[in-house]
Amino acid sequence: MQTEYISAFDVVIGVLWRFWPVWVGLILVMGASFTYKKRLGLYGQLFDSGVGIAGVFICLFWLFTAIFASTISPFDPLAQVSVMKDTLPGAIEPVSKLVYYFGGDKLARDVFSRMVYGSQIVLIIAPAATGFALMVGITLGLPAGYYGGKIDTLLSFLANLVLAFPVILLFYLLVTPGIMDTPIPYGMAGLFFLFPIIFFCVLFWTRYKNRPDRLYILLGITLVLGGWIYTGLVFDKDPLHIVHIDPNQLNIFVAVVFASSPGVFRIVRGLTMDIKTRDYVAAAQTRGESPWYIMLWEILPNARGPLIVDACLRIGYTTILLGTLGYFGLGLAPESPDWGTAIKDASRLLRSFIHPALPPTIALMSFVLGLNLLADSLREQSMKD
Amino acid sequence: MFSFIARRIGTILLTMLCLTLVVFFLVNLEPNLKKLAISQTEMHTPADQLESWLVNHGYRQNFFVRYGQWLGVLPKHPITDPATGKTTQRFSFCNDPVEPTFSGVLQGDFGCSTKFKTTVAAKLFPALGATGLLMFWVLAVMVPISLLIGILAGMREGSRTDRVLSVASIASTATPEYVSGVIFTVIFASWLGWLNGSAASASQGITFYNFTLPVITLAIYGIGYIARMTRASMVEVMTQQYIRTARLKGLSFSSVVIKHALRNALIAPFTVIMLQFPWLLTGVVIVEVMFRYQGFGYTLVEAAGNNDIDLLLGCSLVSVFIVLITQLISDVGYAFLNPRIRVQ
């Protein structure tokens, strides 16, 4: 049976039409941001430059794509329709009459749907891993920079140790199927996921220790919420069965946090060493504030500018790392629709078919580009102040 | 200065010791040893024979004893047949000793590659040579282009050239090797047919046809980053008083840029280029796998995929050494280039 195709023009129109929830979301958010940009602080200032608008646009585009993935994609990303094997872009699937907009791959799956669903994996893991890396880096970097001395020497040595590892070797050692049989990933997860809980507890304790009514509520919320997520993620024993993560995803997550937290540590340490010489820190010391209060409530808020910029860049970098993992087939399931795995599968067959390779590469590149543009524009805005 | 370098070298040695211990621990995890035993014995070997293979080849000795043997502070023992008391080599394909000898990294013996059936040295050093060639060409392409872009962009901050080049360099930092590699292969190999999408033949001799794609793929990611650093440094220099003085003296803009600004603007990029090496190392792995070039990265992937313990240790030793030594060179070089910095 001959596969029917639609024209290239119809492919473009069809793809744009499939993204309709994204366009609606973009118009709403961008419109609102434009209208109220004076009141939105640093975020509002992004809309003053073309680079900033482009960055926000691309990041929001992929955010909405990830949220509405099930509406946008016409097919299940794992479904194989054997007649559609290696079809070119625009092929019509005979049963449902829906279109394989970007063609089919070697396992007869819809490339377009896979690209859309791939955004979900990236947009969940990359920001979350960056968040945890930030927590670990901040919690260790602040005391290292503030106290200096032995604690600094030890922590810096450990950070340099991890940084001296080529990332790829680290992943080959930490993200293997064999390591899942050992307690190492769970131990590391248990350690890393402890940091946010510690961070927030210390944060609230230092601020509200003289106001027990507030303190106990905040600490209670932190411990209950944190403990709930902690048991779900580390032990997979969430009593409500809501928080759940696959063991191989946990492994990737831990490896990525492990690889990127020393970078955050170095930045936070440097910023702390710079900021602790300022007058307002000396004033707080004279007032007799505790060291952790000074670190968390005096130094950290003043280091936020460079940290936000770094976080943006780091999410992009984490996306690249996830792609690298996918490209080497480490950790993620072989049929997973994430971009790195898709690039790996497609790049082996470039001699015969190029269409399955292009959507995931362009998706990954554009998302990282959006984040980099965002970071660049944020840096410029914060330098103006 | 000398005490500074001596201290740094001490730290490097300590770091290498710690890291190899970590790698040694990870490759000797029980699942990894099982994998090694399965790949080294014939198919469908029963579990007790796998175990006896591991015992026979010394993998069941104490962890620290084996690390000491690899390091060369404890003697390596040959296989001894318990019935006859006769000793044989552990691995016949790489001249293992038949009597206990101190033969580890400290003595220059990197061990035995179980995957390639040869000594680690015989496999690793030619691969390093091949990668060195690749690195040379990458640097030869990357450094001049990125410096040129950075200087042109930073010369007149905020101009149209600056904005175009800045966005272009941001775009290039957003393009990891596996993305640019695919795109370049599609354009230059599949579509135009100018270049070869595989560098497998480059081991026999490099040509423009088979070597260009790996080189530009590897260079493109670094170009953006170095160009941005050069631009930042150039912008800073161009606002200095002595540049204004030179302009007011009546010198032409081009001679001010070339004679006054350039020398000071190129100090920062030097450090950045040096610190690019760790990233290039990861890039090398991706590019060599993608273009099937038999270099260091390819060896590393093969070693990791087959849990080839000694080869993997050798690879990590080499890569950690490169990372740390480039850091040292960048620190020392920076102090030399910038007389205002004095290392204590």
Overview of this structure, please?
The complex is a heterodimer of chains A (385) and B (344). A two-stranded antiparallel ribbon of chain A has the order 1-2. Chain A contains 17 helices and two strands. The mean pLDDT of chain A is 84. Helix content of chain A is 71%, strand content 1%. Chain A has helices at residues 8-18, 20-35, 41-45, 50-67, 69-72, 111-147, 149-164, 167-174, 184-192, 194-208, 212-235, 247-275, 279-287, 291-302, 304-327, 339-347, 358-384, and strands at residues 91-92, 99-100. The radius of gyration of chain A is 24 Å and the shape is globular. In chain A, helix 9 (184-192) packs across helix 12 (247-275), helix 10 runs antiparallel to helix 11 (212-235) and helix 13 (279-287) runs antiparallel to helix 14. Chain A has 385 residues and is an all-alpha fold. Chain B has 344 residues and is mainly α. Chain B has helices at residues 2-27, 30-40, 47-56, 63-71, 120-155, 160-173, 177-191, 208-238, 241-248, 253-265, 267-275, 277-290, 296-305, 309-337; strands spanning 79-80, 87-88, 112-113, 118-119. In chain B, strand 1 (79-80) and strand 2 (87-88) form a beta hairpin. In chain B, helix 5 (120-155) packs antiparallel against helix 6 and helix 11 (267-275) packs antiparallel against helix 14 (309-337). Chain B is elongated and about 95 Å long. The mean pLDDT of chain B is 81. The chains are: A mainly alpha (385), B mainly alpha (344). Chains A and B meet through helix 7, helix 8, helix 15, helix 16 and helix 17 of A and helix 1, helix 2, helix 6, helix 7 and helix 12 of B.
